[in-house]
Amino acid sequence: MLGGALVPGKPVANMYFTLYGYNTVAQALSLLQDLKLGQYTKLPPITTFVVQTVGTIVTIIHAQRDVLLSVQGTNVWSGQQVQSYNSDAIGWGALGKPLYATGTRYGFVPYMLIAGLGFPIPFWILHRKFPKFGWNKVFTPILVAELGYLSVGINSAVFTAFLVAMFSQFYLRKYRATWFRKYNFLMSAALDGGTSVMIFVWTFAVGGGSGTVRPFPTWALNPKGNPDYCKRLT
């Protein structure tokens, strides 16, 4: 949106604006997450970085090219971020005014910035009216940002993460405070580490990271068709 406003009518310039203005920050945060895990396991930072880079460039792009080019992707790989560069460049760069100007079909989109500024107000009012209920603890920027991710890709894993977060931050923190203070950080690291190890094993043993996909049994969490049980995409 900002790139389209600064350089209107130039989709390539908009693409470069997104690539160097946003993607560098997003990729840096993703790299730092893995570097943090590597630090926990006593891996040298340079080793972690080399494995990240080589794995991304060689393994994923080579073995999962067709999936990355598809619209839906799978519950493991998705090319939505890569494809969004082109669509965003055309949408905001070349067709910004016809699509997003006031009075057009998507003219409401820029005004959502104002709506985002007003999103915390209801929670502030509720906190003033019910100060003991905990409305002041609702962190609206994260809430709105995460809701935006639910509109694209395969996102059924978000529900699992939500259940774990509720168990940790509500039940353990409120009813098992001593255990929470002593072990919650360790539990978080264990879940992150265990998940990363299982993803690594699954990717190469089953998911096609080695070049061969081995079909996983069909069951409730691995259904036929769309993994999110979306009837429209099944």
Specify Rg, calculated over alpha carbons: 21 Å
Question: What fraction of the residues are assigned to beta strands by DSSP?
Answer: under 5%
Gap from first CA to last CA: 32 Å
Which residues form runs of ≥5 with pLDDT under 50? none
Total helices: the number is 11
List the secondary-structure elements in sequence, H or E.
HHHHHHHHHHH
Tell me the helix content.
55-70%
Structural class: mainly alpha
Task: Provide a descriptive summary of the structure in words.
By secondary structure, this protein is mainly alpha-helical. It has 11 helices and no strands. Helix 2 (11-40) crosses helix 3. The longest helix is centred in the first third of the chain and has 30 residues, at 11-40. It is globular and about 55 Å long. The mean pLDDT is 81.
Notable traits:
globular; 234 residues; single chain; mainly alpha
Structure summary:
The protein has helices at 2-6, 11-40, 45-63, 65-69, 80-94, 96-100, 112-118, 120-129, 140-149, 157-175, 177-205. With 234 residues, it is mainly alpha-helical.
SSE inventory with pairings:
Layout (H helix, E strand, L loop, with lengths): L1 H5 L4 H30 L4 H19 L1 H5 L10 H15 L1 H5 L11 H7 L1 H10 L10 H10 L7 H19 L1 H29 L29
